[in-house]
Amino acid sequence: MKMVYDFITMTNTYPTIEETIGNTPLVRLQRLPGAFGDPKGNVILAKLEGNNPAGSVKDRPALSMIKHAEARGQIKPGDTLIEATSGNTGIALAMAAAIRGYKMILIMPDNLSLERRASMKAYGAELILTKAEQGGMEYARDLALSMQSEGKGLVLDQFANPDNPLAHIEGTGPEIWQQTNGKITHFVSAMGTTGTIMGTGSYLKSKNPSIEIVGAQPAPGASIPGIRKWSEEYQPKIYNPKGVDTFELIGQEEAENMARRVAAEEGIFGGISSAGALVAALRVAQRTQNATIVYIVCDRGDRYLSQGVFN
Fold it and tell me: Which pathway does the database say it acts in (predicted)?
């Protein structure tokens, strides 16, 4: 009997996969700020969200949205969930659904990477691909809501769900504050659903209102996965423009070039939107001094290999 008790006690000391979400490393860039360090005394720090178990910052809100919906009695294991996604949220939701026992239907434009599709299917999700010419993510969002109205499942709606930014108020923001010992002066994030920048920025501002929140948005003509500028009709409801102090417009070529550079020069293999955030962080460093600048590496570069960016 004691052996059985000892085994149960021992196994309970090991984390489950969902308990490994968050507490990601914060690392200092060594070469890109300057060969001998930033001459203005700035420090640029990368928050490695690709270290989450499903490989992106979206692991945090995916689990948050499901757990809080459960707590409110909206869903129970065995139910079907639906979400429109450009990739990372879909992969994260597929993982979270597998962990907690849900069926997952994901709707994604067909012009996004093959790696993302394969990852979603690996976690057991059903994938519906829409034609890019039908309207991209906007059409995917409309289709998800249409399927919900037909009774085919519940849309968690990352674009309007307050449990999305809440994940960063409770997790990402406090981690960055603690990891920098409260010395952070600038926070930089790509803007997609805006959950990361809204939640993290809100927490950091509550600790020090002088921290500058910098959002990376696409320059005209750029098509960077994970960085979006929505039309008024599709603006995420969780977004508050007052939560962003400065916007940086990121070009397609400079984001892709930076993705290659940061991998080759810093050993940080991140995605294209992460590189766009770094472009913005380096611009911040050019106009300030003695700053502690944190940017989000929101996913891993291996999700983009089939697109040829790293060839």
Answer: Amino-acid biosynthesis; L-cysteine biosynthesis; L-cysteine from L-serine: step 2/2
- Do 125 and 118 contact (CB within 8 A), yes or no? no
Q: Kindly name the residue from 47, 56, 58, 189 that is annotated as catalytic.
A: 58
> How does pLDDT run across 13-62, given as a tens digit for each residue?
899 999 999 999 999 999 998 755 677 899 999 999 999 999 999 999 99
The amino acid that residue 178 corresponds to is Q
- For residues 45 and 282, the answer to whether their CB atoms sit within 8 Å is no
Confidence of residue 270 (pLDDT cuts 50, 70, 90): very high
Query: In the chain, how long is the greatest CA-to-CA distance?
Result: 68
- Out of 113, 189, 273, 274, the active site residue is 273
Is 273 assigned a catalytic role? yes
- Number of residues that make up the chain: 311
Query: Global pTM?
Result: 0.92
Tokens 């991209």, residue located? 136
189 is catalytic: no
Query: Residue 288 annotated as binding?
Result: no
Question: Helix H segments across the chain?
Answer: 2-11, 59-71, 88-100, 114-122, 136-149, 163-167, 173-179, 195-207, 252-266, 272-286
Instruction: Answer yes or no: is 195 a known binding residue.
Output: yes
Q: Is 181 annotated as a binding residue?
A: no
pLDDT value of residue 38? 73
More confident residue, 64 or 112: 64
Instruction: Indicate the pairing of strand 43-48 with strand 26-28.
Output: antiparallel
